[in-house]
Amino acid sequence: MSPFFRFVVQPTIGVLLLTATAAGQDALSDRVDDAIAKGLDWTWTLLQPNGMFSGHDPHKHPDDYFYYGDWEVVCMTSLAYGGVKPEDPKIKLKQALESNPELKRAYETDPDCRRILDYGFVLEGLYRNPGTHAAGVVIGEKPLVELIPLARDKNEEPITQYAMEPLGELGLLKMDFLGLKTLTVVQETIDLVRAATGREIDIENLPLDDKSTFELLNRGDTVGLFQIEGAGMRDLIRRVGVDRIQDLIAIIALFRPGPMNMLDDYIQRKTGKASIQYDHPLLEPILKETYGVMVYQEQVQKAANVLAGYSLGEADILRRAMGKKKADVMEQQRAKFIQGCVRTSGLSENLAGRIFDTMAKFAGYGFNKAHSAGYGIIAYQTAYLKANHPVEFMAALISSEMGNSDKLPIYIAEAEELELQILPPDVNASRVRFHPQGRAIRFGLAGIKNVGESAAEAIVRERERGGPYRGLIDFCSRVDGQLCNKKVIESLIRCGAFDALEPNRARLFKAVDFAMACAARRLRDQRSGQTDLFEGPAGAATPEELPPAEPWHESELLAGERELLGVYLSGHPLKQHAALLAAYQTHTLAGLSALPDRALTRVGGIVSAVAKKVTKKKELMVVLRLEDLEGSAEVLVFPEPYQKFAPQIRENAVLILTGEVSRREDPAKLIAHDLCPLTEAPARFAQRLSLHLPASHLQDAQLERLRDLLRQHPGPVPVRLCLQYASGEKVFLDLHRQFRVLPDAELLHRLKHDFGEDCCFVAVAPPTPRQENRFPRPGAAVRQPALR
Predict the structure, then answer these.
(1) Neighbour tally for 660: CB within 10 Å
(2) Alpha-helical segments (H) within 146-223
(3) Burial letters for 217-231: b for 16+ Cβ neighbours within 10 Å, e otherwise?
(4) CA nearest to 98, candidates 112, 86, 115
(5) Are 708 and 543 in contact (CB under 8 A)?
(6) 3-class secondary structure for 762-782?
(7) Which of 575, 604, 600, 574 has the alpha carbon at shortest distance from 589?
(8) pLDDT band (50, 70, 90) for residue 770
(9) Helical pair 390-400 and 407-417, crossing angle rounded to 10 deg
(10) pLDDT given for residue 635 in this prediction
């Protein structure tokens, strides 16, 4: 066996031997233990930084076991994925080679890639490591050590050595005890409402007919609600029209891949578009709640109990047989069910057989009602709190996602949609978590990247003890330096948490070392009993103490906020492009929802995220997130346009896109046909610049100023001058070709500054497919449009 295989395989065997030895040495007599979970696959571990291959450089240690260093793993990750993360986490390496053209090309041309993946083909499918099930608990009738082999995990807690499948076959009970983050959100909301209003919410006895709650659900305002915040679920709730808790419970049970074909039947019957029929009157009380559709496993069991005289235990065996669809068992159960129906309810054999077939069809996808009802109740509780206490609920919800850079911006955007202002973090106003301030939510200190709860708690605790911080040096002097180190302080400065004390973030950032040194010196002096006669109030930091610094550019300020907070708070990088966006886009991203399916539009914004995908034809496409000043939307760029515009598609690029609206899912998406940098929009889309000027105010100096401005911005776009007279008459003049311009942001700004805000209008070409197909590729020469 090669050193490589000794390195990889032996630790796994060693762990199993160690656990077996530990189990033999210690009699773990508890009857309840955690279930072991197997790390099944090496497939993508090969390509992960800091994984099994991290550690040594093989070129520096040729005689050591075969390792891949971080530098090589990162390189190979880039080659392997080509920027594309497999959507199926269980995909095999050979499948990935066939489905990802960039990976296949790398495998064929790059020897390092071939070497790593060849090892992967051998290792694939081997157990990587043992682990502990996140929520699984095994329960037995006697001490488990008498029934199965046990072990201890890394925390010295007892675990089983068998995985969950053998445990079930041995007759042991495995239960999942889940801890839901949503329950923390609910309790925190209750606490915030109590603190703000003194009102106590009895969450276990909410009115189940609350009008505002059902209105919120039926308009699809479900972002942040338990189990029902996905786009598909929002669309389904709107289609169904929820007006009772039972509908919500049924929707949660039906919205799964298996029973999707039952959804339309349920909707048709609920909305009265299809009649509700029962195969036998005895089924009506069982199925009436779900309009005759067999949704729950309990309905299958009850039907067998009532029609065929099954005991509830026998009915559960029938349900399991139907779910597993074992032919021999199903045939036995079918005969038993028919005989029971004939004997118990007097049904004919044909009718009993038809009912059995219907039950078998539904039982394969039936959901446990107790499970669905539990989820439905929690979903209703979150909807009630959001509808009736939106500030407190959103504050608790956003706090629950601190540190989650994907969810945090979404929930902050949702709060803004609810017209709740998000106040920036402030060392003298923020708490550890997000909290309400009137109709606003103050950003929590623990929600800042690199800060964390321990540092945030130390900051708030010291502020409550010693009063507000008076400056950076005062802050450094009072807060524990081990918890609030230099990186924490720099992060607080860059995100604006010190703005109330010193608005120049660059000055504070430059002075961090200085402030920490001053703080350390003061602490030493205090311990030795020395004081400074010329120092102001204890610990106060005067502006003169900090070295001067040029303020950061707005783009740097905003970049810091986006990096550390996940959102822009003090501004938006698109504000400087607001004039161009207003002139050349036909709709805002927030306005896409009002457009019909396949409507053509042109939108602009900044790219906040890019994800590459591989199509069924093994071609690359991208899905990007585009943000403007009013909202955001998902944009699909299919392989053909992606090949044309790939160099333009990157994070933080400011683009203008032409495409069609897709309403197949909610919210609406955009399918891009064409895109370019926003700065190219004037040359691409402008057809004419119209200047509306009052004739009575035009003097020679103004005309010369206008002439100079137009000549300073030459381009392909013709200019039309509209002279407005006091009598209401208008005279239109098409200027000579030598005065054609490029109506970019600078020209529009200078025209409005010199001649009035309403002086200029840009006629923009509509987003028609014919026109968009004539657009050149990025970087190509742009043909000047003819005078119109």
Answers:
(1) 17
(2) 164-169, 181-197, 211-218
(3) bbebbbbbbbbbbeb
(4) 86
(5) no
(6) EEECCCCHHHHHCCCCCCCCC
(7) 604
(8) very low
(9) 170
(10) 94
Contact 39, 129 (CB under 8 A): yes
* Residue at token pair 């961090």: 512
- Cα 22 to Cα 19, 131, 474, distances in angstroms: 5, 16, 54
The residue assigned the tokens 């609406």 is 668
Q: Which pairs count as long-range contacts for 279-285, CB under 8 Å and 24+ apart, including other chains?
A: 279/351, 279/354, 279/355, 279/358, 280/307, 280/345, 280/347, 280/351, 280/355, 282/306, 282/307, 282/345, 283/307, 283/355
The model's confidence at residue 529, banded by pLDDT at 50, 70 and 90, is: low
Compute how many other C-beta atoms are within 10 angstroms of the C-beta atom of residue 47. 21
Q: Is the pTM of this model over 0.85?
A: no
Both tokens assigned to 591? 């306005």
Mean confidence (pLDDT) of the chain: 81
What type of residue sits at position 685? F
What is the per-residue DSSP string for 63-88?
TS-----HHHHHHHHHHHHTT---SS
Q: What is the pLDDT of residue 416?
A: 86
Q: What residues contact 93, with CB distance under 8 A and at least 6 apart?
A: 43, 117, 120, 121, 124
519-526, Cβ contacts within 8 angstroms, sequence gap of 24 or more: 519/473, 519/476, 519/477, 519/481, 520/481, 522/473, 522/477, 523/477
124 Ramachandran zone, left/alpha/beta (phi>0; psi -120 to 50)? beta
In 3-state terms the chain splits into helix, strand, coil percentages (rounded to 5) of 50, 15, 35
Q: Letter for the amino acid at 542?
A: T
What does the pLDDT look like over 670-725, one tens digit per residue? 999 999 999 999 988 999 999 988 887 678 888 888 999 999 999 999 999 998 88
d(C-alpha 761, C-alpha 769), whole Å = 24
Other Cβ atoms within 10 Å of 101 Cβ, number: 16
d(CA 399, CA 412): 10
DSSP classification of residue 551: P
Helix (H, G, I), strand (E, B) or coil at 180: coil
Per-residue tokens: 294 = 């067999």
Name the one residue in this structure whose structure tokens are 């700004």. 749
- The helix/strand/coil state of 587 is coil
